[in-house]
Amino acid sequence: MVSRDRRRAATLAEIKAAARRLLVSGGTPAVGLRAVARELGLTPPALYRYFPSHDALISALIADLYDELTTALLSLQAGDIELGERLYLLANGLRDWALAHPAEFGLVFGTAVPDPEDGEHEATPGHQAAMRFGGLFKELVAQIWHQQPFPHPADEELGTVLVEQLTAESEHFHGMPAGAIYLSLNYWTRLYGLICMEVFGQLHWVLPDAAAYFEAQLFEIGQALGLDCPAPE
Amino acid sequence: MVSRDRRRAATLAEIKAAARRLLVSGGTPAVGLRAVARELGLTPPALYRYFPSHDALISALIADLYDELTTALLSLQAGDIELGERLYLLANGLRDWALAHPAEFGLVFGTAVPDPEDGEHEATPGHQAAMRFGGLFKELVAQIWHQQPFPHPADEELGTVLVEQLTAESEHFHGMPAGAIYLSLNYWTRLYGLICMEVFGQLHWVLPDAAAYFEAQLFEIGQALGLDCPAPE
DNA sequence: TGTTAACTGTTAACGGTGTTCACTCTAGGC
DNA sequence: GCCTAGAGTGAACACCGTTAACAGTTAACA
């Protein structure tokens, strides 16, 4: 006989799996409490033994998706691969995942992040998963920097305010200088912005297929980090 | 006695005003059919005399917000202002509007755009309003280009596929070459991406206040278009 | 001017949602 | 072997978007 909390863990996983299934088939609005319960042959109130609310279920699903994405991107970089190539794989992997799972991407990255300086939000599993995901990028960029520092704007070019804010983040970037963090942040914001626009269809009223544009942009933003990504055909 | 369709137009405006009020106070989920009706002292079915569905009401609201934003940005550029300064005002005006009306911005730009090559979507007022808004930017960039062409990547650097796609859009950019359209598109995607990330809180886990970063980015992307935006302090 | 048709609003109802409460039953721990 | 904690149920509540049938007002037309 399986132990009781083992059974509980199994049911919990089944719930999230069902929610995931509904998400991919019908988008975010399709993953309702009653729908999930129906999928498992349960009555809606039964789910409250596992999640305090519908929102909590969604949050848990988001955290799971973060982790899935993180491990997927990690596995892409397995083996003995040059650091620049790794970043290229990370960027392309993120885009591929986003395009292959638009509903999941929309749920994870289209949902507003919790309040700025709201207390006790650091303990939430979703936040931790997001941090793990963000760390993936920070870590890689810091490695690239320490292997071969790339030219970066001087503090005077950025302005004192920005330099102060960037150096405050220096510890998270393994002690990189403000200018280098600035370029890394550029890489991230441009990558994130591009993928969001492509997935949410904000781009295909000017570019029906954004693959070539994405590739060109990847080359451009990689150059800023001293990488020679594969040049466009 | 006011004519009947005048009265009808007034009620229609009141409905959208109430919806707008609910939007700013409680975000997108707060603007429900019943809530709007309550706001006007009507019963929910009465709204069906004015909108075929709740979705239609939301779409009309989006179209209105597009137009409001368009005229607001247009008025910013009124008078005898240099073209580069105009683009700077446009970018900053968009950001200011987004930060001042986060709920509206989320509704307008966070909502997925209608299907790619879906037929008859061109007649929808929301689409037309979006086109007017997009035209604002295209028009200005084309003016800048024709006043003083900026250096742009050659076709060989972009790759044949991308060049083909960009030249297909040439007519919308007053006959600009592919490389120049590419740089203009960069301006737009980076601006849009930055504002989205800031408004949706995707940025303040690394930058508590993104104003300085935005300013620096604006300078950077303006340079690519041959403009000398105000340099950071 | 009287009739008619269209328009605007109502009430009642249907099926859907998340959520709570009181209850039953079953499995584990002492 | 009792007894308690946990899993699950059914009924109910308040909300949601939507539809149908109905009533009052207002404009148009013979």
SSE topology:
2 copies of one chain form a homodimer.
Chain A: H1 4-26, H2 33-40, H3 54-76, H4 83-100, H5 102-110, H6 125-147, H7 155-158, H8 160-168, H9 178-199, H10 211-223
Helix pairs in contact in A: 1-2, 3-4, 3-6, 4-5, 4-6, 4-9, 8-9, 9-10
Chain A binds a DNA duplex (30 and 30 nucleotides) through residues 1, 3-4, 7-8, 11, 32-34, 42-46, 48-49, 53-54.
Structure description:
Two copies of one chain form a homodimer. Helices cover 65% and strands 0% of the residues of chain A. Chain A has helices at residues 4-26, 33-40, 54-76, 83-100, 102-110, 125-147, 155-158, 160-168, 178-199, 211-223. The first copy, chain A, is elongated, with a radius of gyration of 21 Å. Chains A and B meet through helix 5, helix 8, helix 9 and helix 10 of A and helix 5, helix 8, helix 9 and helix 10 of B. Chain A binds a DNA duplex (30 and 30 nucleotides) through helix 1.
